[in-house]
C-alpha cells in the first residue's frame, strides 16, 4: 500500500494484513483526568491523549516504521491517515492499525511513556491486539514473525493478558487476539461517579466490526491503481476513488479522508461523531487484500447491512468477519450470531462464538460459491 515500504519487490508483493492495537486508559473520555487546552484556530477543547502534539506522535511512528500522510479532526477525536494504515486518537484511547512490515508492538513502551508524560495517564485500563494470519510471515520484523513471539512480548510488557487463536489454524483466514482485563476498576468507579459513562447515562457499550478480504476481483483491483490521465494521486485521487467505487456511500453522512497511492493502493478514514471507520486496499494481483473496520454502532445499519455493502464493492473470493461487542442479553447474542449467517453468493466455511469476560466475539469465514458470477 505504501509508496515507500521496503517490502515492495520487483514482483510487487506487499503484506496487506494489518496489526491492530488498542490501548484504553478508561472506558470513556469522561473517565480520565480533566486536563485540557485549546486547539489553534478556535477548534474545540481537547484533553487526554489529544493534548499530545503532532511531532510527538511522529517520533513514536518512527518506531513503528510509518509516517503521517494527513490528519483530520472533529469534536471527539483525531484521525491520522498513515503511510501504512490509520491511527485514531481519543482523549481516553489510541487505536493504531498498521500493515506491511511495520513494528507495531515495539512502540507500546513509548506510547505508555507519552500518555504518562503529556497526559498524566499512568494506568492502562484495557489493551487489545489482533491480526489476521500473515501471507508472508517470513518478511515480518521483530516479534511479528510468529504469533507465539508476539504473545510473549505482550505478556512481558502488560499484566493479566490472554491470547486466542480464532478460526482454522491451518487456514488463510485464521484470526489472532490478545487482550487483558481492566486493571484499575476502583479508580474508574470514583471517576465515573463524577463523569457519567455517556451523555444518556446508559451503560458502557463498545463494538468493532472487521471485514478482511482476499483474492479481489480483477474489476475491483483495477479501480485502485493510479492512472495519471484521470488526475492526481494523494487526497485528490482518494476522493475520486470514493466516488468511483461507491465507498463514500457506506456511511454517506460521515467525513471521509482518503488517499490513493502511486502506483497503486488506497486508504481512507471516516469520522462519524465519536465513531470511525477505515478502509485499506492492497490491489497487487498476487497478494490482493482489502480491509474494512468500524466501531460505528449498529443503529446506523445492521451488521449484515454493513457486510453486504462492503462485499458488494470489493467482490472478494474469500473474506472473514469478526464482530467484537460488549455483552448484552441472550436475545442480542442470538442476533449477533445470525448477523453472519447468510451472504448471497458465498458459502460459510466457519462460524465461532467466543464469550469473554465482558465481550462476545463472533467470527465467520466465507468463500465465493463456484457457480456464482
TrEMBL record:
Annotated site location: Cleavage (non-hydrolytic): 84-85
Cofactor mode of binding and number, as noted: Binds 1 pyruvoyl group covalently per subunit.
Primary enzyme class: lyase
Entry keywords, A to Z: Autocatalytic cleavage, Decarboxylase, Lyase, Polyamine biosynthesis, Pyruvate, S-adenosyl-L-methionine, Schiff base, Spermidine biosynthesis, Zymogen
One GO molecular-function entry: adenosylmethionine decarboxylase activity
Active-site residue numbers: 85 (schiff-base intermediate with substrate), 99 (proton donor), 267 (proton acceptor), 280 (proton acceptor)
Coiled-coil residues: none
E.C. number(s) listed in UniProt: 4.1.1.50
Catalysis: reaction(s): S-adenosyl-L-methionine + H(+) = S-adenosyl 3-(methylsulfanyl)propylamine + CO2
Residue numbers of Pyruvic acid (Ser) PTMs: 85
Presence of the UniProt keyword Ribonucleoprotein in the record: no
Cofactor: pyruvate
Similarity section: Belongs to the eukaryotic AdoMetDC family.
Protein name per UniProt: S-adenosylmethionine decarboxylase proenzyme
Lineage of producing organism: Eukaryota, Fungi, Fungi incertae sedis, Mucoromycota, Glomeromycotina
Amino acid at each position: 500500500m505504501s509508496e515507500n515500504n521496503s517490502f515492495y519487490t520487483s514482483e510487487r508483493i506487499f503484506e496487506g494484513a494489518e496489526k491492530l492495537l488498542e490501548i484504553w486508559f478508561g472506558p470513556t473520555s469522561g473517565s480520565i483526568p480533566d486536563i485540557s487546552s485549546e486547539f489553534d484556530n478556535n477548534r474545540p477543547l481537547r484533553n487526554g491523549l489529544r493534548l499530545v502534539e503532532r511531532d510527538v506522535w511522529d517520533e513514536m511512528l518512527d518506531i513503528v516504521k510509518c509516517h503521517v500522510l494527513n490528519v483530520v479532526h472533529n469534536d471527539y477525536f483525531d484521525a491520522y491517515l498513515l503511510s501504512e494504515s490509520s491511527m485514531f486518537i481519543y482523549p481516553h484511547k489510541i487505536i493504531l492499525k498498521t500493515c506491511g512490515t511495520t513494528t507495531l508492538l515495539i512502540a507500546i513502551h513509548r506510547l505508555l511513556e507519552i500518555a504518562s508524560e503529556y497526559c498524566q495517564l499512568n494506568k492502562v485500563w484495557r489493551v487489545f491486539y489482533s491480526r489476521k494470519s500473515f501471507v508472508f510471515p517470513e518478511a515480518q520484523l521483530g516479534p511479528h514473525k510468529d504469533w507465539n513471539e508476539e504473545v510473549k512480548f505482550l505478556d512481558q510488557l502488560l499484566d493479566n493478558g490472554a491470547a486466542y487463536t480464532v478460526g482454522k489454524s491451518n487456514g488463510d483466514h485464521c484470526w489472532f487476539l490478545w487482550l487483558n482485563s481492566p486493571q484499575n476498576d476502583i479508580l474508574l468507579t470514583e471517576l465515573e461517579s463524577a463523569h457519567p459513562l455517556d451523555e444518556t447515562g446508559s451503560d458502557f457499550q463498545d463494538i468493532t466490526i472487521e471485514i478482511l478480504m482476499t483474492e479481489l476481483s480483477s474489476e475491483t483491483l483495477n479501480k485502485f491503481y493510479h492512472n495519471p490521465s484521470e488526475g492526481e494521486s494523494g487526497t485528490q485521487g482518494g476522493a475520486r476513488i470514493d466516488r468511483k467505487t461507491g465507498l463514500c456511500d457506506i456511511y454517506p453522512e460521515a467525513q471521509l479522508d482518503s488517499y490513493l497511492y502511486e502506483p497503486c493502493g488506497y486508504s481512507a478514514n471516516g469520522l462519524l461523531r465519536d465513531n470511525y471507520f477505515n478502509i485499506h486496499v492492497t490491489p497487487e494481483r498476487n497478494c490482493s487484500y482489502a480491509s474494512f473496520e468500524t466501531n460505528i454502532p449498529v443503529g446506523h445499519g445492521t451488521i449484515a447491512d454493513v457486510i453486504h455493502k462492503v462485499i458488494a464493492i470489493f467482490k472478494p473470493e474469500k473474506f472473514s468477519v469478526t464482530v467484537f461487542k460488549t455483552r448484552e442479553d441472550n436475545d442480542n447474542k442470538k442476533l449477533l450470531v445470525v448477523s453472519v449467517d447468510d451472504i448471497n453468493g458465498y458459502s460459510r466455511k466457519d462460524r465461532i462464538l467466543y464469550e469473554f469476560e465482558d465481550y462476545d466475539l463472533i467470527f465467520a469465514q466465507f468463500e465465493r460459491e463456484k457457480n456464482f458470477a
